[in-house]
Amino acid sequence: VAKESGKNRYHLFDTAQDEAIKVQRESLEAIRSALDEQQFVLYYQPKVNMKTGSVMGVEALIRWQHPKRGLLNPIDFLPVIENNPMSIEMGEWVIDNALTQISQWQTKGLNLPVSISVNIAAVQLQQPDFTQRLTTLLAAHPDVEPRYLELEVLETSALDDVQHVSTTMINCIALGVSFALDDFGTGYSSLTYLRRLPAKLIKIDQSFVRDMLSDTDDFAIVEGVIALAKSFKREVIAEGVETIEHGKALLQLGCHLAQGYGIAKPMPACDVPTWVNDWKPDASWQV
Ligand code: C2E
Ligand code: MG
Ligand code: MG
Ligand code: MG
């Protein structure tokens, strides 16, 4: 009997594994057709200077307008394609769309954020032809100055070759774009990356910012990253600024740049111009 139930367990296990493989394959096929059918859209979340009251730019955040399931967040689909060539294709789609958006805002002569930040996985930067591909994308939008494009590098996995990534970044900077280190402090080797990668901006991860007012360890990390940015002569922005109080505390620590629900949630492109025109920093931020 024991043997038989053991056998059954294996059988169940196999079935579960087969099922997982099937689900993965179906998810990949669904994303493939979503790309072909243009179901992905970019939402934009403002990045502001709390001290001067100016809008620095917006970050492009991908969404899947799913015909049946509604608007899906990156967590629902990006992990599926993480190790698939489709992630490269999607990454290029995002850059291309962001450049189109800048150009549309510019031709309409709107009072707009000066830059768009696009998220890219660090592994994407390891593609041997990344610089060439970026050159091609920029060339397709001759009316957009490359300095309006910022690339946020996500250190989701350890880089095999920091030297190569650094060289790629230097070559891209020569094209006019700039870089930010995203989710700083949570990745594999933040300090090595900070020292070796020519990123102009550091984004303090939202997990530290969220609890900084209640957790002294998180407060210490936020304070430390701000000091680190200063010594390395990099700009620093806090993400996940959910309340006015967070903003106040960050300003007191010398971090003027911020992004978060307390300022604005990610919004469709059509809502950006009005938001930019209407936004005022909180009165308590003026010191
Ligand atoms: P991220 O680049 O660190 O972006 C910040 C995420 O936190 C966004 O989630 C944003 O909506 C959310 N957020 C912003 N402010 C607050 C806040 O005050 N509180 C809270 N709780 N959350 C806040 P989203 O849009 O779901 O994106 C999640 C992640 O997916 C991004 O994290 C980024 O790593 C990745 N991602 C998004 N778009 C792209 C893309 O086009 N390409 C790639 N490769 N990754 C992307
Ligand atoms: Mg980001
Ligand atoms: Mg982040
Ligand atoms: Mg993140």
Structure overview:
The chain is an alpha/beta fold and 287 residues long. The chain is built from 11 helices and 10 strands. It has helices at 2-36, 78-81, 86-107, 122-125, 130-139, 162-175, 190-196, 206-210, 216-231, 244-252, 272-278, and strands at 40-49, 55-66, 70-72, 115-121, 149-154, 178-184, 201-204, 235-238, 257-258, 267-268. An 8-stranded mixed β-barrel has the order 1-2-4-5-6-7-8-9, surrounded by 5 helices. The radius of gyration is 21 Å and the shape is globular. The mean pLDDT is 91. It binds ligand C2E and magnesium ion (3 copies). The site of one magnesium ion has 4 residues, from β6.
Short note summarizing the structure:
This protein has 287 residues and is α/β, with parallel strands linked by helices. It is 46% helix and 20% strand.
What is the total tally of β strands?
10
Main beta sheet: 8 strands, mixed, barrel
Structural class determined from secondary elements: alpha/beta
Report how far the terminal alpha carbons are from each other. 77 Å
Average pLDDT metric: 91
- Give the strand content: 15-25%
Poorly predicted runs: none
Rounded Rg: 21 Å
Global shape: globular
Q: In order across it, which strands form the biggest sheet?
A: 1-2-4-5-6-7-8-9
Domain EAL: 24-280
Organism: Colwellia hornerae
Protein name: EAL domain-containing protein
